[in-house]
């Protein structure tokens, strides 16, 4: 048993080094050589940073232990490493700052890495961000996308992005999850949150059911329950109408983003920037938005 604890301790040490953003001299790792100097010992994927327009942008690279070789987008290479399925597990392994990191979210593809954004500070941290919108970025991501693009995810974790319905399903299907939504209103600048103790996105292949059915519940917050109306709905996009509006296609009609439209939307966090459809509304609230974020984490009780 002592040996097990020793190995676990060693792994924790390695992981906390690997997931740490700052090198000892205070700079961010730029390449595999820096990762190695920070204590890297295993072949695998790591986060490094490029400076673009005075902004540090995280990218994922693959480092080979032997020669510090750097390869982009290589699959696999997790053997011997303790890998995390979500940002909560990264937090348990020592990640304590907000920022990008690598998870292995797919149960069927345990060696397939994904660069994600983690929030390790809000309400105790452990959150994996599933979408971020922010109209203050220079180069805004287009959210008018096909069903396949929403399934796979798009955008850049350094800026605005949608993580993808396959990942959201994988993250929320493996255990009970909670959801944390934050918004900023476009005109007033007012901010607030919605917390759901329950959030789940079902599989794409629901047989007779629409794909990626979203269920949310047990709301508390400051902005009203904008998801209640959408709970139980499948996912629709400009090229796939799975909504409950018989007369037409909500996605086409409501700004072209993909969402769990019903007949059609109370909240929609994927509609175009600057449009009235990018909003969060409920029985007692109405916000047109400039910023929004959704993030999930396994419930404390599981
Ligand atoms: C750099 O910033 C300027 C001004 O904010 C912006 O117009 C330009 O698109 C940015 N370039 C890149 C590569 O992001
Ligand atoms: C803007 O983003 C697109 C898509 O991510 C990218 O191809 C393009 O190079 C970016 N342009 C600038 C100026 O950063
Ligand atoms: C979902 O939409 C697709 C494409 O519009 C359609 O073929 C499919 O039958 C829909 N599924 C359900 C259950 O509504
Ligand atoms: Ca319809």
TrEMBL record:
One of its GO terms (cellular component) is extracellular space. Residues 78-300 form the Fibrinogen C-terminal domain. Residues 1-20 form the signal peptide. Keywords: Signal. InterPro entries: Fibrinogen-like_C, Fibrinogen_a/b/g_C_1, Fibrinogen_a/b/g_C_dom, Fibrinogen_C-term_domain. Gene3D superfamilies: Gamma Fibrinogen, chain A, domain 1. PANTHER family: FIBRINOGEN/TENASCIN/ANGIOPOEITIN. NCBIfam families: GGGWT_bact. This is Fibrinogen C-terminal domain-containing protein. It comes from Meganyctiphanes norvegica.
């Amino acid at each position: 048993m002592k040996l097990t604890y020793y190995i676990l301790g060693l792994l924790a040490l390695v992981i906390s080094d690997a997931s740490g953003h700052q090198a000892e001299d205070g700079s961010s790792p730029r390449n595999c050589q820096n990762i190695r100097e920070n204590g890297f010992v295993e072949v695998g994927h790591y986060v490094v940073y490029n400076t673009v327009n005075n902004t540090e942008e995280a990218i994922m690279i693959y480092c080979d232990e032997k020669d510090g070789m750097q390869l982009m987008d290589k699959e696999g290479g997790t053997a011997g490493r303790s890998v995390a399925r979500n940002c909560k597990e990264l937090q348990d392994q020592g990640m304590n700052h907000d920022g990008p990191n690598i998870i292995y979210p797919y149960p069927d593809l345990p060696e397939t890495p994904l660069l994600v954004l983690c929030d390790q500070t809000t309400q105790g941290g452990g959150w994996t961000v599933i979408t971020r919108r922010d109209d203050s970025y220079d180069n805004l991501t287009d959210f008018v996308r096909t069903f396949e693009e929403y399934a796979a995810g798009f955008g850049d974790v350094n800026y605005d992005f949608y993580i993808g319905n396959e990942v959201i399903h994988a993250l929320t299907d493996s255990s009970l999850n909670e959801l944390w939504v934050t918004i900023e209103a476009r005109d007033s600048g007012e901010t607030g949150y919605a917390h759901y103790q329950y959030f789940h996105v079902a599989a794409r292949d629901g047989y007779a059911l629409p794909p990626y059915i979203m269920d949310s519940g047990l709301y508390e917050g400051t902005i009203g329950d904008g998801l209640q109306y959408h709970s139980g709905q499948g996912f629709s996009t400009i090229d796939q109408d799975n909504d409950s509006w018989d007369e037409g296609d909500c996605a086409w009609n409501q700004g072209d983003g993909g969402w769990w439209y019903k007949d059609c939307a109370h909240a929609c966090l994927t509609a175009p920037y600057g449009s009235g459809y990018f909003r969060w509304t409920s029985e007692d609230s109405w916000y047109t938005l400039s910023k929004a974020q959704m993030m999930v984490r396994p419930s404390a009780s599981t």
